[in-house]
Amino acid sequence: MSTTNLRLAVAPHDHVRFCDSVVGLAGRVRSLVRVPKTLDELQNLLGRNDSGWPGQVDFEKLILAVTLLYAIGAVVSVENDRVVAI
Question: Would you list the DSSP string of 17-59?
């Protein structure tokens, strides 16, 4: 892989909308888990027309967002496979 290709892979040159980014989604998820919720509940909330989230959220991106929140210590797992912000 050339240096240019590696640079583009690490730092893409295309603009990514906030609603399409995992970091943006993680921020929205954190605001939704003030009370414990399952991943399915989060998916349903984000998929509603009145959710306030402009983009489509697929389950894989939701899992990545929750994993990011776990990694930085912003959420914890509680009973019945639910996550809650700390």
Answer: -GGGSHHHHHHHHHHHTTS-B-HHHHHHHHHSTTSS--S---H
Task: Report the Cα 48 to chain-centroid distance in Å.
Answer: 16
For 29-45, the pLDDT digits (tens) are 999 999 999 999 999 99
C-beta separation of 86 from 73 below 8 A:
yes
What are the phi and psi torsion angles at 11 (to 5°)?
Answer: -125, 85
Compute CA distances 49 → 2, 72, 86, whole Å: 44, 29, 28
pLDDT(64) > 50 = yes
